[in-house]
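Ticket #4471: structure output looks truncated?

Reporter: J.K.
Steps to reproduce: submitted the chain below (262 residues) through the standard prediction queue, then opened the result file.
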Amino acid sequence: MPEWTDTAIIIDCRPHGEHAAIVHILTRHYGRYAGLVRGGQSRNMRPIMQPGNQVSVSWRARLDEHLGSMTMELADAHAATIMNDRMRLMALTSICALLQGAIAEREPVETVYDATVAMLELLSSDVDTPLWLAAYIRWEIGLLAVAGFGLELSRCAVSGVTEGLRYVSPRSGAAVTSEAAGEHIPRLLILPGFLGGDTKSLEEDVINGIRMTGHFIARRIFGVHHQPMAEARQRLQNMVMLQFGKDMASDITNDHPSHEEG
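Returned output as attached by the reporter:
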C-alpha cells in the first residue's frame, strides 16, 4: 500500500458528499497531489482546510494511481492572517490558481514549494504592498521557468549587453535595450526597474511587472492548453492597476497643483 508523509500547502478544497472534502495540495517532496479528507467539512477541520495554510499531511491509497485519502494537521495558518487584507487575499488566491494550472500532478517541484512558502510568509508579514508585489512578480517569473518558459532578462537579446535594458519581447520573453528595440518599442513590454529596467516609482514598476508576467502566464501556461487566464490572476492584475494607477495619478496632481486665478 503506497503512502507518504510530508509538509504541504493547501491550494484548493472542495466538499465531497456530506462530510468529506477533496483537497489539492502542493507538497515539498511529492509535488501537487489530491486526496480525500474524511470529515473535511467538520467544524474542527474547516479552519485547517483553507487555501494558503501549511499542513503536515499523510497520504495513502491501495494503488499509486488512486485518489487516496489524507489526514492533516495545521502547521501555519497563513490564510487567517492574509484574509484581513483584500489585495493580499487576492494574491493568495492567484498563487493557488497558478499552482493548480502550472504544476503537473505528482511531479516533484521542491523549488516551487520553497518559493511559495517564502511568498506566503511575506504576505503574512507587515511588508508594504508594493514590496511584496515586487516579490510576487519574481515568484511568477520562477513559476514560468519551472513551467518551461524562462524569461531572459539579464542581457539584450540583440546586442548581448547587460546594461540599459528597457523592454521585453512579448514573443520570446527576452530583454532588449531602447537602441535594439528601435521602431518596435510600442509593441514591447516594459521591463520593471526592480528586474533591471529603467527605474521608475515602485508603483509604476509593479504595474509594468504584473502586466509583463500576466502576458506570459496567459500565453505560455494557460494558452498552450487553450484555456483562459486564471480568473483569480486576472482580478489581481486589475486590482493592482486600479490601485496604483490611482496612486500615481494622485502623486502627479500633488506635484503639479492647479493655480486658480484670483
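Triage note (M.O.): checked the attachment and the full C-alpha cell line is present. The radius of gyration is 21 Å.
Status: closed, working as intended.
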